[in-house]
Amino acid sequence: MAVRLADLNLNGTGSCASFNFRRAARAVTRFYDQALEPCGIRSTQFTILVGVAKTQPTSISALADVLVIDNTTLTRSLRLLKKQRLVSVSDRGAKRQRFLSLTPKGERTLAESLPVWRAAQERFVQSLGADYWTNFRGELERLAHVAISLETATPR
């Protein structure tokens, strides 16, 4: 049965939470990517490097949980970070887990990128207003928890 575009009811789709969050996330990501470009990494890579640095050695699944990324997506991102010699991935150990650590090059890259990130972060927060950002960050955390709870409670 063929569907005609004219017959689709698209009312309300502009208020879709996923659309609006992804749109905002892409804009914010572009801002941070541009700032971190001189360091040779993207903002998504910076986030992973910070996550590894804070929890190393950490399993891939534990990092995926912290970053709310599925294992497959994280594994793809880690492949590039490993190729760039920024992270090391252990062989499978107990319970078939692999553990991540920053390499010396990864530590240097993170050290170089932190002041760049701090400058971008300060610029971003100042543009929003520090109080607004603090409150909004709390709301983002709440929204993440709501989405995660809905995901696990949704019948398939």
Short description:
The protein is mainly α and 156 residues long.
Write the layout of secondary structure elements.
Layout: H1 17-36, H2 43-55, E1 58-59, H3 60-67, H4 71-83, E2 87-89, E3 99-102, H5 104-128, H6 130-153
Helix pairs in contact: 1-5, 2-5, 5-6
Estimate what percentage of residues fall within beta strands: 5-15%
* CA gyration radius, whole angstroms: 19 Å
Helix content: 55-70%
- Structural class label: mainly alpha
Could you please describe the fold and organization of this structure?
66% of the residues lie in helices and 6% in strands. The protein is mainly alpha-helical and 156 residues long. Strands 1-3-2 form a three-stranded antiparallel beta sheet. The longest helix has 25 residues, at 104-128. The model has no long low-confidence stretch (mean pLDDT 91).
Properties at a glance:
three-stranded antiparallel β-sheet; mainly alpha; 156 residues; 6% strand
